[in-house]
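Model: Ready when you are.
Researcher: Fold this.
Model:
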Amino acid sequence: MAKSGLLVAAFFVIGGAAVIWLQTWPTPVGHTMEPPDLSGVGDGGPIVEVIIPAEFSTSAQIGKRVFDAACAACHGANAAGQSGVAPPLVHKIYEPSHHGDASFLLAAKNGVRAHHWQFGNMPPVEGLTDADVKMVVAYVRELQRANGID
């Protein structure tokens, strides 16, 4: 009986210590998975501020041109989103571990049912090849890294 009592007490002490230890971890700063509050952003205004890297790779430079021609009308300049139109792609929600590169290819090809944001469904993007979208992904990923999303 004494051994089982010690085991139960040790379990609670260790569990309590673990909870306290986890509570002392710092709160992450920067991007969260939660969509931002858009109440102060006028329709069509950028949803996030985007830091532009000093240089883009060759693939990202091509991707920027494709993005500007095919995506920016909805997703805004530098993928900052547009309030009332479409979400920013420079956002934690679109980090590689949550939305892999293939999700961008599928979104452009098939469209996307709204699931993170309240902008409605995204239609397919006509006229883009898989290679075009891969270049756009390179551009978006470089923007994301410059903004602490990776």
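Researcher: Now this one.
Model:
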Amino acid sequence: MKIEDEFKELDLIFPIINGKVSIAINRKLYRNFKKEGLDITPEQWTVLSFLWKEDGITQQVLCDATFKDKPSMTRLIDNLVKQKLVYRKTPPTDRRANLIYLTEAGHSIQERAEVAVYDTMKYALAGIDEKGIEEVRRLLKIVFDNLKESL
């Protein structure tokens, strides 16, 4: 296969991997969050979902876990603070760090958010059997790991 032919195939694959699927899933998530009465974004959900697993972690841990830069994470947390879903606390041992904790309101929306995410993924993955889902997961992990190493 000529290099030009390989690039033509990549031109078809790249937009799908890069954005179309992500945009479509985010749109569906927005709709499902609203259907559940939640005023959160998919990006905010990624932060909240980590805090539901481990509350009281640093902004840097959240940056690493969500693959976001510090300014983006600061804006995300600022908005979650305004919505009274999280709060910052400075530990006495390291005044440079901020620990991020869920508020009662942040804890209270977990189940509705999980329903919205489950419904979104169920819809997105309809018609794909478990073997296919595992293969997609495996391939996307390889793509992500390849890119992560180069950054």
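Researcher: Key takeaway?
Model: The chain is about 70% helix and 5% strand.
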